[in-house]
């Protein structure tokens, strides 16, 4: 079994949908796909993407990204309701949002959000970042409370699903540490850092004993090892980003 990873498919764009449609229906039948969020804010397109991918892989594991929880075009009360709708859809389509075991290997989805542990958002960011308009949360929930709600639902090292696992692979949509962003990022783009993720994820990842973590969200593809954990981002991205994203599945692990 091979394990492939990709994130940020953004199926709202026709070229991205075409790329999924052209994936082989035969080459990956014994393989697992890690799908690290941002598929579509439209449930119909999310369902189409799930259906296409589950036909091509033996197992598909998924966590929602921020786009997947937008509610401004779906008429839902808040983004927690959207999360529940996405989770029901995943279950109906055979997509896993819970830990997956294959003998000694455990692959663990990790929910998250951003809590400004990477920096305080500027007035510019609060005005420009679409989540502030497209997501809605219940009264009393700021982004720190939203982050706590998600990370509290992640498995702990004592979870039965992780018992006797010899290899743990984790994945999230959001970044678990800001130094995953390379030094070459221009200063003007660093103002996005506050909304990239949370350090709470890295704490949990290390408590689980993960040796490999897949993430998305930044659209900056990278593979780097920090303090014993290898972090990989393989974002597909927007059509306008074709000149710097790989636009292909990445094999990140294999099981004999």
Automatic annotation (TrEMBL):
Residues 1-220 form the Calcineurin-like phosphoesterase domain. It comes from the Bacteria. Transmembrane segments: none annotated. PANTHER family: [ACYL-CARRIER-PROTEIN] PHOSPHODIESTERASE PPTH (PTHR36492:SF2), PTHR36492. This is Metallophosphoesterase family protein.
């Amino acid at each position: 079994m091979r394990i492939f990873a990709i994130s940020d498919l953004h199926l709202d764009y026709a070229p991205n949908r075409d790329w999924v449609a052209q994936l082989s229906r035969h080459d990956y039948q014994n393989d697992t796909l890690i799908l690290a969020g941002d598929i579509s804010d439209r449930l119909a397109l999310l369902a189409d993407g799930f259906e296409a991918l589950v036909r091509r892989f033996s197992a598909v594991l998924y966590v929602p990204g921020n786009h997947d929880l937008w509610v401004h075009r779906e008429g839902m009360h808040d983004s927690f309701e959207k999360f529940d709708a996405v989770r029901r859809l995943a279950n109906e389509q055979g997509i896993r949002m819970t830990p997956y075991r294959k003998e000694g290997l455990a692959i663990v989805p990790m929910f998250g959000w951003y809590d400004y542990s990477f920096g305080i958002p500027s007035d510019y960011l609060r005005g420009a970042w679409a989540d502030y308009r497209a997501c809605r949360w219940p009264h009393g929930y700021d982004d720190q409370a939203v982050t706590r709600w998600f990370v509290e639902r992640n498995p702990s090292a004592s979870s039965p699903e992780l018992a006797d696992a010899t290899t743990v692979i984790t994945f999230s949509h959001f970044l678990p540490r800001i130094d995953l962003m390379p030094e070459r990022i221009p200063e003007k783009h660093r103002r996005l850092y506050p909304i990239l993720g949370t350090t709470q994820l890295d704490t949990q990842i290390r408590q689980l004993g993960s040796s490999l973590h897949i993430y998305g969200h930044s659209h900056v593809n990278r593979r780097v090892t920090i303090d014993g954990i290898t972090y990989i981002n393989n974002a597909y991205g927007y059509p306008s980003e074709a000149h710097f994203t790989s636009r292909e599945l990445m094999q990140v692990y294999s099981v004999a």
